[in-house]
């Protein structure tokens, strides 16, 4: 197994020196944001992790390897090639065997992070139960992964292209803790409020780390969602963004978009319809998650 995993020098040294490490996903780069903002953001996010006391490990599949930590050239390749695959759990073996380039989703990044011994992962938003899932059965593999794989995912909640209430129900059934960071309410990605209360909100990364430690020390399988709302100054107006999401979803339906194409299609259309405002908000919330992720990794490492 180990010869399929390759570490960047920075991450290798961090492992040897037992420094805190934060995993970062790559689908957000390849399919979640347009070029060149995607690559710029990826580099800025890595720097924020460093500035807050941890080492970034952006994860992707290339040349038959799971790469833990990417060079500038590798990031550029991910952000600016048309044929990067979106890789979830089911795709990992195929991508490695065929040596193609794959960007890892939340699910696949969690798997790779766990293989590398990394416990904290920061991203934008998780996948979830899509609206209308009672007929389409479109439920992201991210949710199953959260119930199986021991990695904490710092995110700004799930955006309202999803059914946030059903996503929370699913996570509850699967025994996944969803813990607010300095909030008692599930955030809704572009906005701070969804109206759905969480069972617990924590004020400090020290306490979050202690919660994770208790869960994993008992051998309780699975990860956790650390729900960290977008900073107020970058939040979008709820009615504005909800209207646009409705329109993008209607277009997805009219165009027969389904399967793994749904999330990238909706993200792209929302960006166009907001004239880029959603992209700015998305970038800012990812940066904030990177900061909290670094602080959480440092707190966890100090236990
Ligand atoms: N949500 C976002 N931006 C993203 C994604 C989700 O706000 O880029 C990506 C993540 O990689 C997530 C994936 O794991 O989409 C979920 O895709 P699906 O719904 O096909 O499982
Ligand atoms: Mn899906």
Report on this structure.
With 303 residues, the chain is an alpha/beta fold. It has a single domain (3-300), classed as Indigoidine synthase domain (Indigoidine synthase fold, 3-Layer(aba) Sandwich), CATH 3.40.1790.10. It has helices at residues 9-16, 27-30, 37-51, 72-79, 92-98, 106-115, 133-136, 141-148, 164-173, 205-217, 238-254, 262-273, 277-301, and strands spanning 5-7, 21-24, 55-62, 65-68, 85-87, 102-104, 120-122, 152-155, 178-181, 200-202, 224-227. The structure holds pseudouridine-5'-monophosphate and manganese (II) ion. Residues 25, 27-28, 31-32, 88, 105-106, 124-125, 127, 140-142, 159, 260, 263, 267 line the site of pseudouridine-5'-monophosphate.
Q: Could you give me the name of the CATH homologous superfamily? A: Indigoidine synthase domain
Class of secondary structure makeup: alpha/beta
Specify the number of helices. 13
Query: What best-fitting shape do the alpha-carbon axes yield?
Result: globular
N-to-C terminal Cα separation, in Å? 29 Å
CATH fold topology: Indigoidine synthase fold
Under CATH at level 1, the class stands as Alpha Beta
Q: How much of the residues is beta strand, in percent? A: 5-15%
The number of strands is 11
CATH architecture classification: 3-Layer(aba) Sandwich
Low-confidence stretches: none
Mean pLDDT: 97
The largest sheet is: 11 strands, mixed
Family: Belongs to the pseudouridine-5'-phosphate glycosidase family.
Active site: 25, 159
EC number: 4.2.1.70
Pfam families: Indigoidine_A
